[in-house]
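Form 7-S
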Amino acid sequence: MSETPRPNPLTEVYRDRWLLAVHKPAGLLVHRSPIDRHETEFALQYARALNGGEHVYPAHRLDRPTSGLLLFARDPEAARRLGQTLMAGGVTKTYLAMVRGWVPALGLIDHPLREEPEDRRRKGEPQPVREARTRYRCLATTELPVAIEGYPSSRYSLVALHPETGRKHQLRRHMKHIHHPIIGDANHGRGRHNRYFAERFPPGRLMLAATALSMQHPVTGEPLALYSEPEASFRQVLSVFGDPAAMEAACRGQSD
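Output:
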């Protein structure tokens, strides 16, 4: 007796003759990686299934624990043009993140980052330092009556992040750099805060989601703006900020 095929975990957000945009859930790799050799399921194969079994070309990547918008080209020429648009800085990306502390209203993080090799076995080797810039805007703040690091209460912010460069783990490393690490970030975050939210909203997750993308269409030249609502596990944690309708409006407002 054959096993029932697993439902496709990707949700289609946009499709035309040249492009396919999907929402990737947290926990799914985009493609094979030397870090996770044992994995057998990838967003790339599920996107191919949505494309009728035909090959697709990922325009960018999302880390495994990051959920949200993922864009593919549907043919080699579209992939070439899309790559040129990305290299020219013609794509604006928006991410939502929940971070520790109260973040200033808006700002620019201009902090170079040393490259992180894909293969952990090369971690000790010298790596080049690249320029890296992230703009941010604070959307909401909250203060919870819980003592986590010796204070009687704990503060958090919901922020919109706009990376102007595309370095590996850029958003997570930049938020750590300004002392506002992303909740759920095991490598760059604060363990006690991560554990508190994992216990309150099990099983816990990285509070980073790619929600919006805008550019001129690489083939037609027309404006293209895509938006994908954060998945349920992300929205559940946002309940600490209060009114869900207000949070949804704030999140959508960053895609305009």
